């Protein structure tokens, strides 16, 4: 605290990202990065931009990138918003679409950035408990609210809510915005973008950080009705006119154009996820069914924190959340085959 601070800063509870260790040769399975690396075509497109043109500001509206994303999902560019990582897109959503009289709703076990944005923008919220199997029950979201947001697949559980049930939540809230945060949808889920033309209250966010291996570039986007997108445009142009730099715009566009590489990387992660899940079950873990690039698992005889610490001593980092209901779970990012081998060998020794 300092006398120089704006008073609101005293009350902020910032998000704590997963550790980005400085040490090399750790098996890093804690922040859901993609183990396979960006598309070589995306890398080439980015390299090409690095030169004299960096003197100049980037396109403030990312016109080419928006067109590419619009073509990919068969929507219009007016239905697409892009931002500096989907975290920034989410921030603009909280500011521009969630400040109403009633509290917004999100699952009690969910992305821990949501309550942080509530604190930043003074948005009231109500946590809706997941059921005993850590599933979202759509009927829980048919209650008065100022908006709804949930990840699908959910984080950190990995559980996926089928599209028909997503639609139930959207249809039950015609007067409020329902945001589906699809950071992990490319690892086996169906996107709710298919529904945006029928529901003016539906907004879908995605990121290039996970399935397209560009976490270091910071590119995310939202797709929905033009009126929702216009709200985000107004917020963005009152905050930062140039959120995406030239390198990010070029890399993101090329990543979307390299479908073959994208599919291969996602399929690789999915195959490894199935293998890791089975092996963990063989060690006695309870593994939630995952459609993400991580698994959420608990061992009935070991504390989550102890397992995390023991793995860490072997140079293997996984994520542990010291929170009600999930403190005995580990969230383990799916790595390369070699990284997963190291994880499983490490666990075998510990157990
Ligand atoms: C990783 C993640 C994001 C943020 O992605 P960025 O585009 O890297 O900011 C958003 N939502 C969820 C649920 C995530 O796991």
UniProtKB/TrEMBL annotation:
Its cofactor is pyridoxal 5'-phosphate. Residues 25-345 form the Aminotransferase class I/classII large domain. It is an enzyme of class 2 (transferase). One of its GO terms (molecular function) is histidinol-phosphate transaminase activity. It comes from the Bacteria. The modification N6-(pyridoxal phosphate)lysine is found at residue 210. PANTHER family: HISTIDINOL-PHOSPHATE AMINOTRANSFERASE (PTHR43643:SF3), HISTIDINOL-PHOSPHATE AMINOTRANSFERASE 2 (PTHR43643). This is Histidinol-phosphate aminotransferase. The lineage of its organism: Bacteria, Pseudomonadati, Pseudomonadota, Gammaproteobacteria, Pseudomonadales. The gene is hisC.
């Amino acid at each position: 605290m300092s006398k120089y601070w704006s008073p609101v800063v005293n009350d902020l509870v910032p998000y704590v990202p997963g550790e980005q260790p400085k040490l090399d040769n750790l098996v890093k399975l804690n922040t859901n990065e993609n183990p396979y690396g960006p598309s070589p075509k995306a890398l080439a497109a980015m390299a090409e931009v690095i030169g004299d043109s960096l003197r100049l500001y980037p396109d403030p509206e990312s016109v080419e990138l928006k067109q590419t994303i619009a073509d990919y999902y068969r929507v219009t560019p007016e239905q697409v918003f892009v931002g500096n990582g989907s975290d920034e897109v989410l921030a603009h959503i909280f500011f521009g679409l969630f400040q109403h009289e009633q509290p917004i709703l999100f699952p009690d076990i969910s992305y821990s950035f949501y309550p942080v944005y509530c604190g930043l923008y003074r948005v009231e919220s109500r946590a809706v408990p997941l059921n005993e199997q850590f599933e979202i029950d759509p009927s829980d979201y048919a209650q008065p609210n100022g908006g709804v947001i949930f990840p699908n697949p959910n984080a950190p559980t990995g559980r996926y809510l089928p599209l028909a049930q997503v639609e139930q939540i959207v249809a039950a809230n015609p007067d409020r915005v329902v945001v589906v945060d699809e950071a992990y949808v490319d690892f086996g889920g169906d996107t709710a973008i298919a529904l945006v033309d029928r529901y003016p209250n539906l907004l879908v966010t995605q990121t290039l950080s996970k399935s397209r291996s560009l976490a270091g570039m910071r590119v995310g986007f939202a797709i929905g009705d033009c009126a929702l997108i216009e709200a985000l445009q107004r917020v963005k142009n009152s905050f930062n006119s140039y959120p995406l730099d030239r390198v990010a715009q070029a890399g993101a566009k090329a990543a979307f154009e390299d479908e073959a590489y994208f599919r291969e990387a996602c399929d690789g992660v999915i195959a490894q996820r199935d293998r890791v899940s089975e092996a963990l079950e063989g060690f006695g873990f309870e593994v939630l069914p995952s459609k993400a690039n991580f698994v959420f698992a608990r061992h009935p005889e070991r504390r989550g924190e102890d397992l995390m610490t023991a793995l860490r001593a072997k140079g293997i980092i996984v994520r542990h959340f010291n929170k009600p209901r999930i403190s005995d779970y580990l969230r383990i990012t799916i790595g390369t085959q070699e990284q997963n081998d190291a994880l499983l060998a490490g666990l075998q020794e510990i157990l």
